[in-house]
Amino acid sequence: MLRERLKSILRGPRSPYEAGPPPPDSGQPRFVLSSSQREMIQTRPSRGLEQFFASFRDQAGLTILDLGGAYQENINFITSLGHKFYSEDFLRIFQDTFAADPADQSNLGRIDFFLRQSLDYPDEHFDGVLAWDVLEYMAPPLLSATVDRLLRILKPKGYLLAFFHSADRLETVPCYTFRIQDLHALQVGEHGTRTPPQLFNNRSLEKVFQRFESVKFFLTRDRLREVIVRK
Question: Are 62 and 56 in contact, with CB atoms under 8 Å apart?
Fold first, then answer.
């Protein structure tokens, strides 16, 4: 029992939020806190988000996994469509697992441990996964293993939405949080910067998702590639 409790603490909330009326808005200003400052969330259009939810049009009772954590805006939006919302605080688990030694991203034992903490779900469990920018944090061996696990837990014809910075020679890129405003727009908060282990172009992303049935790209003005893939 103690072991299961520790595992639950490490991996964050997993239980689905059932479809139903969204909780009332707290009325608080839409700010997020970084370690050093308050940040206003900026709103921008998202073709990838629009296409992701258009794929589920006229369906209800689907299971959606959000790897960005349990933001209330996302819970409200997805459950209001009649779907079940699951979440993982994926980046926190990633940092807890690999911050001490980034070289562990090539260690098969640590990779297996990380996937058991973050994506321990039955095969073909989800209709859709909102990965946001979390895959961009990973070195190639860990990225490959994570994409394979995501493929496994997606249902046939399921969709995954992910964001990657374009393949410009950037020494650092912003870190983001993502909150769904509506079918066409996201509230994006920037919280610091990081050094990416690799940058991606269309060809390299097609290779990352080569086991999926289709890959579609949308290039945004802020040098992000929005990628929607279908199993």
Answer: yes
